[in-house]
Amino acid sequence: MKRIVILVVLVLLAGVAGIVVRSANRPNGTVAELRGLVSHNATGDVRDEIRQTYQLSPGATVELSNLNGSIKIETSQTNTAEVLIERTADSQDSLSRRKVMVDADNSGLRIRGQRGDAGFLSRIFGSRPSEKVTLKLPRQISLIVKGVNGAIMVGELDGPVDVRGINGRVQIAQATGRADFKGINGNIVVGLRDLMTDGVSLNGINGNIELQLAQSVNADLDAKGMNGRVVSDMPGVVVEKDKRGSFSAHIGTGGSAIAVHGINGNVRLTSAQVLTTAVETLDKSSAAKGN
Q1: Do the Cβ atoms of 196 and 256 come closer than 8 Å?
Q2: Does residue 178 contact residue 158 with C-beta atoms inside 8 Å?
Q3: How many domains does the chain contain in total?
Q4: 49 and 36 both lie in a single domain
Q5: Can you list the residues of the chain whose pLDDT is less than 70?
Q6: For the stretch 69-92, what's the b/e string if a residue is b when 16 or more beta carbons lie within 10 angstroms of its beta carbon?
Q7: Paired strand residues for 85
Q8: Is residue 32 domain-shared with residue 52, that is, in the same domain?
Q9: How many CA atoms lie within 13 A of 15 on its CB side?
Q10: Do both 211 and 265 map to the same domain?
Q11: Is residue 60 located within the same domain as residue 100?
Q12: Per-residue pLDDT tens for 31-69?
């Protein structure tokens, strides 16, 4: 066993030495990267912006993925999508470690982060730039958000949402048709209206969940694998708990499914009359904290 460990260490050392030797004659190689990693704090903060405007057809799909920062989406009755992406880093070298790609046509808008042109050591040991995304979008869209390290705040949508792989709080003022949430490390507040038969799925959530339901919602809630409880603030909606620790509730005349699985937190059902848009909630919270 000891020989195997020694052999692995020698191979790793040889690999690192080979990288340095191959890069010694390249001004932008590993040696330059090492100098940059040591001295990057001396350059101060750097920023850049992406500003674009697009026209979207009703029902278009907006997809955001692999972003390192918060997302704020305001919605209105328009066909225009306004995009503002503010990127910040502690040096120009750090900023180049990631790119944000934006492309669009009438049927959709796609914003995604991806690896930049930085070298091997910079990608592993260098600091990551952050992205703050602010969008003004039509209400009649389908929204997909995945792989985001930051909070997400969305206004009212006349369409479905699919949110997964998020490290931060998720607030959506209104979704219509279907809502899927998976792998969220943060609290969720979502308003729901006119659900489809397989209306809502919440799976693998580490945080509390508040479902703000319109009077038109008819659904059956089934919650399993909960480290928490389900409570209702809605008139006439009673939450039942069985011996296995599962929860159920009959909302309105029933029908659409609200499936809740693997939750580390509580689920609260409230009426849409107390709904406040996610963007307004965010602004009030930021003002109270002095941000």
Answers
A1: yes
A2: no
A3: 2
A4: no
A5: 1-44, 116-127, 273-291
A6: bbbbbbbeeeeebebebebebbbe
A7: 50, 133
A8: no
A9: 8
A10: yes
A11: yes
A12: 444 444 443 443 448 999 999 999 999 999 999 999 999
